[in-house]
Every structure is written in C-alpha cells, then in structure tokens.
Amino acid sequence: MDYSMLSMPVGEAMFTQRSIRRFRPDPIPMDILHLLIEAAVRAPNGGNRQIGRFLVLTDRAKIREFGTLYHDAWYAKRRDEGHAWTRAEDIPATDKNHRSAAGLADHMKDVPCVVFALATNNGPANSVIPAAQNLMLAARTLGIGSVPTTLHATVMDRFRAMFGIPGDVAFHFCIPLGYPADAKFGGSLRRPTNETTFFERWGFPAPW
Amino acid sequence: MDYSMLSMPVGEAMFTQRSIRRFRPDPIPMDILHLLIEAAVRAPNGGNRQIGRFLVLTDRAKIREFGTLYHDAWYAKRRDEGHAWTRAEDIPATDKNHRSAAGLADHMKDVPCVVFALATNNGPANSVIPAAQNLMLAARTLGIGSVPTTLHATVMDRFRAMFGIPGDVAFHFCIPLGYPADAKFGGSLRRPTNETTFFERWGFPAPW
Known about the structure:
Two copies of one chain form a homodimer. Chain A is of the alpha+beta class. Chain A has a single domain (10-195), classed as NADH Oxidase (3-Layer(aba) Sandwich), CATH 3.40.109. Chain A has six helices and five strands. Chain A has helices at 10-16, 30-41, 60-80, 96-107, 129-141, 156-163; strands at 52-57, 113-119, 145-146, 170-178, 197-199. In chain A, strands 1-2-4-3 form a four-stranded antiparallel sheet. In chain A, helix 2 (30-41) crosses helix 5 (129-141) and helix 3 runs antiparallel to helix 4 (96-107). Chains A and B meet through helix 1, helix 2, strand 1, helix 5 and strand 5 of A and helix 1, helix 2, strand 1, helix 5 and strand 5 of B.
C-alpha cells in the first residue's frame, strides 16, 4: 500500500484533530476510503485475531435510511439523560454541546460516508477502537472530518435488520466522514493532564 | 505543547507500528512521557466528558510488584483457554504467539514503564481507547515500542489494592512502554481488507 499521501507529521495530526459534525456533500473518493481502511487495520488488536470489521456506507439511499435511525437513537439517549426533547429546537440555545450533536442527528442523512466499526463473535471494543482512531486520524491528515458516535439499545434490532448484521457481531462506533462544511481543524479543549494522569499510584499527580 | 518532535509522517507511523514485547531497560525521559500523554488526550472521547485516566508506573519496585500480578493474570487467561501451562517452558515451541506473549509475562517486571488506561465512573472503553492508540502511535514515532494488554478478572482486586484504584474506576488497557530490545518496527500481518470491510450491507465486499 502506498501511504505517502499520509504525509502530515503525527504531532500535527494528533494535536489538530477535533470532532467535525457538519460536512460538505462531496463524496470521498474510493481510493481514499481504501487508504483509510488500510491505515485503520494496522492498529493493534488482541492476539492478532482481527475480529474488527468495517461496514462502509456511501449509497445515498442507505445513508438517508440510516439518518432516520440515527436521529431516533440520539433522542432516545437524551431521554435516558432525562430530557424530553424530540427536535433540535427543544434544546436550550445555551446548551451548545447538545445543540451541536443534535445538528449531526438532523444531518446524518446527508453525510457523504458513514463507517460502522464492528467486531465478530461479539468481540470487545478494545480490538476495534484502536483501528477506528487510526481511521479518524488518517482522515484528518487528508482534511476529512469525523466524530465517533454510538447508537442506543432501542434501535439495535432495526440497525441489524437494516444492514443484515448478524446477532453475534458487536457494534462499537458509528463514524460519519466528510470534508468539513465550516469548522476548521485546530485542536480540542482538554483538562490539564496533571489532573487526569497519575504516577505510581492512583491520586498521585503527574510531576509536570 | 511543543509537538514538533512527533515529526514522523502519519502514514509511516501507522504502517510500521507493531507490537513490541521485549524492551531495553533504559528509562523513558519524563518530558517524553509528558508529550505522549498530551498527544493521547487529544483523541476524541464521548461528549468531551474526559472520563479517561492514565496511571503511569516508572518506579522499579512498583513495576516489579506489578510484574508478578501480570504473570498470574496471563496464565489465568491461558487456563480459561484450556491450557494447563504455568511457565513459558510448558508452551510448545511451535506456538510462537503464546511463546512471545509468555515472554512479556515473564519480563513485565523489568519493563521501564507501564501505563494503565482507566476510566472514571466505570466509563466505557470507547472514551479511553482512542487515547491509548494515540499514545502508542506517538510512542512509535519516537522509537518507543508498546503493546496493549489486558488483565484477568481474578487479579482485579489485587490490582486495585496494589495501586489504590477505586472500585468505580474501570480498567481498560495495560501498556508496557520501552525502547525495543531487538524487534524492528516494520508493520504487521493483516488479512486483506476486502475480507474484513463491507460496503452498504454486511457481507458485501469492499470494491478493491
């Protein structure tokens, strides 16, 4: 595999990755999707049993169908959080995180590509999520945005029926992919790492 | 954060990452550990709730103590697989995967650094494992090897007591880090991606 297109330095890619939730409609060329998948599967997986599977949607009708399911799933999760919202307008304008995520719930039907990260034999997240991060980081390198999302238990039967996914295949991530509509890559807000990293024993802060 | 040291192209880093299980004793400088953690936390996490936590071991006595626990955990997993092995010599020489992993079980006590990927509120793997992959990929960029490993249920109480880890903190990965003793970076063996990637519907192979 010729991976020379992924020429961005690792530091720049990691420190400028951010969640992208609004996409231009432009399709991602097939050779780029191929490169992203090849980069993804290089990530470590348990015992090299390679239980990870990717299901890629590029068909407009399929994505539109999935968009409705994703919308239902997103609001079902909000109900679990105690919110009675059923549409974006119900969410307080001050709640920017939920507003932004609700925007994706509305627009999932229009994204150019969706990738599901799955695992055979109901395999664990830890054998497919490293690959999903490779996929998103490689995408960022090519100016393609993404955000890892999940689904809600109430839609899983519909999800399996919609895409013919067997009962023993675990779902781990739903990742929309596309060229950003407006947001610029440029990093993310994180807590200081000496609050989230300990040395030698839990609660003993990092020495920086 | 100055991330200019992470200058390797993303493609080269991803396509040459491989599991490293034998390490030189040389310590990893603290400023490098700091950079690896900063790179790690840039990865996406659910709702930016930042439930991921890292616990880093560099103290020789602590790592030695943990090495015994890891050894017990590794052989407990082999018992689950139906193997009665209690030491590396019990494993057939032809079973290279288990032999290699058993080597790490023997030598975990000597590695220069161990990083545990954890999550508060018993949080899910999907909010900390992207960060763990960033950590391992950034490490590879600096010539530092790693391999993601897990522990066995039978050692978890000891593990929590050993490091003061609260009961509501979930364990996700144990990652030894160090400069490789012998193995060269150079990629990993993977199945053809058109066997593990589907388009539009489960079972419909990728078009490459």
